[in-house]
Amino acid sequence: MEHITLLLGIVIVTALVFDFTNGFHDTANAMATTISTGALKPKTAVAMSAVLNLVGAFLSVEVAKTISGGIINEDGLKTEVIFAALVGAILWNLLTWLVGLPSSSSHALFGGLIGAAVMSMGWSSIDGGTVVTKILLPAVAAPLVAGIAAMLATRLTYKIGSRTDQKATAKGYRAGQIASAGLVSLAHGTNDAQKTMGIITLALITGGVLDPGANPPMWVIVSAGTAIALGTYLGGWRIIRTMGKGLTELAPQQGFAAQTSAATAILASSHIGFSLSTTQVCSGSVMGAGLGRKGGVVRWSTATRMFVAWGLTLPAAGLVGAGAEFLTKQGTWGVAVTAFLLIAGAATIWALSRRNSIDHTNVTDDDIDADTAAVPAEPAGVVTTAIAAVTPPPAGTVTPAGTVVDPDVKTTLSASSTAPSAEPARPATV
Q1: In the chain, what are the domain boundaries?
Q2: How far apart are CA 365 and CA 377, in angstroms?
Q3: For tag attachment on the chain, is the N or C end more exposed, with fewer CB atoms within 10 Å?
Q4: Radius of gyration in angstroms for the set of CA atoms belonging to the chain, rounded to a whole number
Q5: What's the pLDDT band for 338 if we cut at 50, 70, 90?
Q6: What span, in angstroms and rounded, lies between the C-alpha atoms of 346 and 306?
């Protein structure tokens, strides 16, 4: 076996940087609903998620094997192709993080890898069957399955709890949210950390360090798990805000249903080696939970931007990966230029993000400026107005009958009990 070369070392470091961006980009998947409903404080939530992401990285290597030996034909694959693929994935991750859109880090990686491989060796280097069955089909099916499951689970939880004290029920579901959020974090580490393991393993195979078909070495598993955990701990606050408040307003019951449905879908996919997008699964479950509550309304303007980002991820990252590969195959100077462009692009995006900083101190604020790329105000359209007309009034709304109604607390407070009654008219005297 050969020793690790300088270029291979650069690829490994770049892969861990991608893993780091994957961590803070996808923190929202596990913790956005938990933070938005107040079940956990923001810093506590991301710390718990980071630890469980690290643990999840050690549970399976099925997804890593899919990436390292399933999508790309390893024969003739060069190390610089993997470097170019990572450049496309990292820049797309950072760009969508800047605008607060929960796009798929997984599809960014696959897009960059496919684009770079096609530029280097042509379309014959891609295993189309694996791409369709283990990437594209799960990308369509998983969010739908998780969304429908979350919608049904939300309706069930409200039906079961309809005759119980709503304040006590909400406390119980907040505790359940903490457990289900931990399960999502564990599932995220099991699925997403393996993608970087697979990329590093693929690079080691192309560099002659590992034999084709080898499993990820232990040091690869540890480093990938650590990188994604560190990224998770920093918290992708911009995307957490979009997921927690931008799609729909969630009650604890909905948050619990959404997270449980998402975790089930992710763990099942990881077990059979499907490299699905945890972002798409969690977003689908949040929307399903929003629709599952009577009177709940999904903000479709935000959802539409997310759908567009999902559709653009594979081709956009692929184009950047192909462009980076065009440079890297020119030789050493091409690799240096590509590395410089990656660093310059990342620094520019970071500088732009500082103009409207979002962190744990303001991630749950309701006064959101559109320039923060988080939750723009959505005007009431025809659908929203129609739904509002047939749903109960929101908490604290005074009805025409003069009562204050709170749909989450089964009590009504008469307006006359707090306001002084009008003095009766005195009879006229002659």
Answers
A1: 6-372, 390-418
A2: 13
A3: C
A4: 25
A5: very high
A6: 22
